[in-house]
């Protein structure tokens, strides 16, 4: 089954490049292109499976409401400048499925689209992940994450860490040597305990609050 993708980009030459790249994939269909001002109307008219948003088509800070609306209609992948990726943690919390930097390779982008189409997530590339570390923590999210972290089992913490590293359910199952059903159960428990609705939101809170750093420290301490 082909994944129907709407491309949202302000620059025609950049849009043409993304379009040409994705049209080479037999399981991906570019059904249209739109600017930030027209993307909502195009989404309602075309009903895409996924929307590829190339910032600043919709800037991260100024247009969160529009991104949240789009995320309710289709899976949204946001591509931002690498130096701005740390600001995009907010859009993960409002429903955006994945965030990539402009330094992302074409293979990573295509992989992300395919993961999103199956319900898995690719949050961000390795070279941009450190940008999340210094993000300021709000007291509410910190308290929520801290309370949730106290309820997480050691295996559930491993799942959070692997989700944050961009692993799919299948990759996590292989890493932890368990079944896909078990992983889905762990993910469900993580969402419930952190009081969020999506895996992206769980990872966003984990980064924002420092929970990821805490889990990584515990994970490193267990290693020989």
UniProtKB/TrEMBL annotation:
SMART domains: HTH_LUXR (SM00421). Keywords: DNA-binding, Transcription, Transcription regulation. GO terms for molecular function: DNA binding. It comes from the Bacteria. The keyword DNA-binding applies. Transmembrane segments: none annotated. Residues 145-210 form the HTH luxR-type domain. This is Response regulator transcription factor. It comes from Actinomadura rubrisoli.
